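Response to reviewer comment R2.3. The reviewers asked that we include at least one raw input/output pair. We reproduce the pair for Short-chain dehydrogenase here without editing.
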Amino acid sequence: MNVLITGASAGIGRELAYLHGEQGHHLLLVGRNVEQLFETKHFVEQRGGSAVVLPYDIGQTVQIKALLRATEHTRVDVLINNAGFGLYGEFIETDVSRELNMIDVNIRALTYLTKAFSRRMQLQGGGRIVQIASTSSFHGGPFMSVYYATKAYVLSFSEALADELAPYNIQVTAVCPGATHTDFAKTADLATSGLFKRPGIMDAKTTAQLSFTGYMKGKTLVIPGRSNAIYVFMTRFLSRRKLVQMTHQLQAPTHSL
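Raw output as returned:
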């Protein structure tokens, strides 16, 4: 089985690569950090799998096209759109160039790759697409407004495609992890937020294992972790306004609480 993973250099993406490696799968590792990608490749091969490094920045359309050309003669059975990042701060103060790049990676690249590989999977008789969304997909998030909005797109898009692509034997899963100990917080400038200062934050290995188990069973929606599942369930009983207010309190800079 050939598995393409974006954002495979660290965090959840790397842990998912390890899990597929343990199954003897062949990994196509996509990311910008070549050194870290080769580290992932090394550990995948130690676990019994095989891997190739594809160092492309999917935040750029020209790089997405290059990635698609590089894989045009390779069957991809599983596409895992894991690459993504966030940005913390008040919207009127944050850097719009970083937010537009976030949209490019979290939405544009994910859509582009899903389009290309779903067409290939249709021709080859089936496949699996895994989209890494978030518990933030279910409501708005003050101080991370653009990030939350991108993840809402991923969830909605994935649920629709799960229905639309089923006749072609293509399974689509949206994975919605909660806050996870990875490099995400550092990249998103979350040092002053209370989000990652709560007890019980899951690690990337546990999140990946629960996600892997869920999507390999063909589930359309996977929410790793009991506390995350309870949280998402409870969102059904609260107004959207209340959810936004709660998120404001959680994510507000600690010096203003």
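The mean pLDDT is 91. The radius of gyration is 18 Å. Further pairs are available on request from the corresponding author.
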